[in-house]
């Protein structure tokens, strides 16, 4: 499950997957065949490769414990309305926002600027914002005119999804946050104090 890469080692199938809340990546082998891989959402690009493969019916014996779970309901993830790839101006929210409700701060700022809101994987995984807004290695790649990062550390997996932005502005209370290494403008401070004032100032300027 959640496989991000597949490789062959000594003729055997090896799947690569993040573990421990994505703090480490491990190689996983198989004790029997066939090996089944379920990829993490967006970890692989759909590609036509040509060639052909045999489709084989496999006899499956289910253990008694494996049939105890039942499907109660099926649901669609909210967030289809978020279209971050076309936005010229993006306000990215990270764990530094503190809690789900504080995303309204990012939304107010994006609204004042006429842009959209994006998010890091950490906050998407925490259920603070919809997956459709996730930027990065396992999310979307964006290149807006302005990317305004609020409380985002700048992990490499996030950076790969937004580093082509024309201008990157970061607000972070930690002056050593990696995001400052690739920002055009860095503001060291508490976003909870800065963002509401910034939003007010933009609204006032726009009249
Ligand atoms: C295989 C794999 C794939 C991944 N794919 C992605 C991906 O696609 N996208 C992605 O984003 N991540 C991805 N990750 C996760 C990534 O490694 C980071 O964990 C994640 O990006 C961190 O999110 P964050 O910056 O919101 O949180 P944190 O790293 O926790 O950073 C929070 C930041 O907020 C700052 N802060 C805190 N409070 C305040 C405040 N009051 N004011 C200002 N600043 C404040 C802190 O100083 C800190 O720098 C992936 C990881 C793995 C292993």
Q: Can you tag this structure with a few keywords?
A:
alpha/beta; 5-stranded parallel β-sheet; 3-stranded antiparallel β-sheet; binds flavin-adenine dinucleotide
**Strand order within the widest sheet?**
5-4-6-7-8
Low-confidence stretches are none
Which structural class do you get from the secondary structure elements? Answer: alpha/beta
Helical region count?
A: 4
Biggest pleated sheet? 5 strands, parallel
Estimate the mean pLDDT confidence. Answer: 90
Range of helix content: 10-25%
| Rg from Cα | 21 Å
Number of beta-strand segments:
8
Bound molecules: flavin-adenine dinucleotide
The helix-strand sequence is EEEEHEHEHEEH
For the record, give the distance between the C-alpha atoms at the N and C termini, rounded to a whole number: 51 Å
Strand content: 15-25%
Shape verdict: elongated
Give the arrangement of secondary structure elements.
Blueprint: E1 5-9, E2 12-19, E3 24-28, E4 89-93, H1 103-113, E5 116-119, H2 121-125, E6 146-150, H3 156-162, E7 167-172, E8 185-188, H4 191-206
Parallel strand pairs: 4-5, 4-6, 6-7, 7-8
Antiparallel strand pairs: 1-2, 2-3
Helix pairs in contact: 1-4
The structure holds flavin-adenine dinucleotide (FAD).
């Amino acid at each position: 499950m959640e496989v991000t890469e597949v490789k062959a080692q000594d003729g055997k199938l090896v799947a690569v997957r993040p573990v421990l809340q994505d703090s480490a990546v491990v190689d996983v082998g198989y004790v029997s065949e066939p090996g089944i891989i379920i990829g993490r959402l967006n970890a692989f690009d759909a590609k036509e490769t040509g060639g052909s493969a045999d489709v084989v019916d496999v006899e499956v014996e289910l253990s008694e414990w494996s049939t105890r779970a039942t499907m109660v309901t099926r649901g669609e993830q909210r967030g289809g309305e978020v279209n971050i790839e076309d936005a010229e101006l993006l306000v990215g929210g990270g764990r530094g926002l503190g809690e789900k409700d504080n995303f309204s701060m990012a939304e107010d700022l994006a609204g004042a600027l006429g842009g959209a809101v994006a998010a890091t994987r950490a906050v998407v995984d925490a259920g603070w914002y919809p997956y459709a807004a996730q930027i990065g290695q396992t999310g979307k790649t964006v290149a807006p005119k302005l990317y305004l990062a609020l409380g985002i550390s700048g992990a490499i997996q996030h950076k790969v999804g937004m580093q082509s932005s024309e201008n990157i502005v970061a607000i972070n209370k930690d002056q050593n946050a990696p995001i400052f290494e690739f920002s055009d403008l860095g503001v060291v401070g508490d976003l909870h104090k800065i963002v509401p004032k910034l939003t007010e100032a933009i609204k006032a300027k726009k009249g």
